[in-house]
Design a protein that fits this description.
single chain, alpha/beta, Aminopeptidase, Alpha-Beta Plaits, six-stranded mixed sheet, four-stranded antiparallel sheet
Length: 387
């Protein structure tokens, strides 16, 4: 646990909120792995301000296992933290800090296990895959999965270490992130006939989305009992619009997060939203032709589905002492791996209930449980033949 705590403290100290670079953290990971003679490979974004990282421990042969996690964290702005969110604090058998649960705790456990991986004389490899910008739609993982699919030997299983309280999740929702930008016409608020309000147009669009959410709530997917909530969800996360109380707003922009259960086609909802946006845009243009509404895709990630006789699920159930798999409501890069042909599950330490909140923490008992999971994984790959 000492090494895990030390590594976790270092990882938390890097402010890798998604709007910032993660290069300092990946430099640290590269240097750490290099101390053990392990070479890392980078898959950067277009402007090289962020990067994915992957590394192979053991022989570069078929039958290995991927341990996947993300390096970015959500913002702390406006949250009531009792401690410095980027300093690890140990209290009451918990580790506090931004990312302790989601999901630098898992990364620290994997990195702390590297010496044991080397000493075990692995017969089949462990691949560490760390991505950027998962929190804004698995952006980095898209290129990372494509890269490893092209360059790594065939892999038996992928374990994504998002916080599941070390339960095994074989299903999660798809994720689609949209941005809506509205352009109206500015004027004095007393001269509504001279202006077109971007905020009023936004209100119409947000009401449409609210009604769609009500429809989803009324029609849940009842055959997935472990999924909470068991219906598709829509969230409007950010809104910026207007400049002053007495100015008709020219610009308004807001973000939309759509998470769909398997029975709902997310593209149906998005298509309906775009059609309604065109209707509102025509209404605005009837007042002034320069008005416009732009609805853009920001990011998306497919859902994760149960596999028939999936090896990843079978192994994870053994090593985590669970009897059956569950479903989770949040999205991960697991769907991208599965879509690329990998047997994939989600299983990691900590509770998602602690993620994205002030005073985020992970229980030491969860860290210990995950460390034992990794020990069994190492032992499995040290055997002479694959399962």
């Amino acid at each position: 646990m000492t090494n895990i705590k030390k590594i976790l403290a270092t990882l938390i100290s890097f402010d890798t909120v998604s709007r910032h670079s993660n290069l300092a953290l990946t430099d640290y990971v590269q240097s750490y792995l290099a101390e053990f003679g392990i070479q890392s490979k980078l898959v950067p974004n277009e402007d090289h301000t962020k990067t994915n990282l992957y590394a192979t421990i053991g022989p570069n042969v078929e039958g290995g296992i991927i341990l996947s996690g993300h390096t970015d964290v959500v913002p702390v702005d406006g949250q009531d933290w009792h401690t410095d969110p980027f300093t690890l604090v140990e209290k009451d058998d918990k580790y506090y800090g931004r990312g302790s649960c989601d999901m630098k705790g898992f990364l620290a456990i994997c990195l702390a296990a590297v010496p044991a991986m080397i000493e075990a004389d692995l017969k089949r490899p462990i691949h560490l895959c760390f991505s950027y910008d998962e929190e804004i739609g698995c952006v980095g993982a898209v290129d990372l999965v494509a890269e490893i699919a092209s360059n790594l030997p065939a892999v038996d299983a992928v374990f994504v270490g998002e916080p599941t309280s070390m339960q095994v999740a074989n299903l999660h929702k798809s994720v689609h992130s949209l941005s809506t930008k509205i352009t109206g016409v500015e004027a004095h608020s007393s001269k509504l006939n001279l202006g077109v309000s971007a905020n009023f147009a936004a209100a119409k669009l947000m009401t449409f989305l609210s009604d769609a959410l009500d429809e989803f709530r009324a029609n849940p997917q009842r055959d997935i009992t472990s999924l909470e909530p068991n219906y598709s969800t829509i969230n409007i996360g950010t809104i910026q619009g207007g400049t002053a109380n007495n100015i008709i707003p020219k610009h308004c922009e807001f973000s939309v997060d759509l998470r769909s259960v398997p029975k709902d086609d997310p593209h149906t909802c998005i298509h309906s939203y775009r059609q309604f946006g065109e209707t509102v845009e025509r209404q605005m243009q009837d007042q002034n032709p320069i008005c416009k509404i732009e609805i853009d895709d920001r990011a998306s990630a497919p859902g994760l589905s149960p596999e028939e006789n999936g090896l990843a699920e079978s192994l994870a159930l053994q090593w985590s002492d669970n009897r059956e798999a569950i479903a989770v409501a949040y999205g991960t890069e697991a769907g991208l791996f599965q879509k690329a042909g990998y047997s994939t599950i989600v299983c990691g330490p900590g509770s998602i209930d602690q993620a994205h909140k002030p005073n985020e923490y992970i229980e030491k008992a969860q860290v210990e449980k995950c460390a034992r999971f990794i020990e069994q994984l190492i032992q499995h790959l040290s055997q002479s033949s694959a399962s």
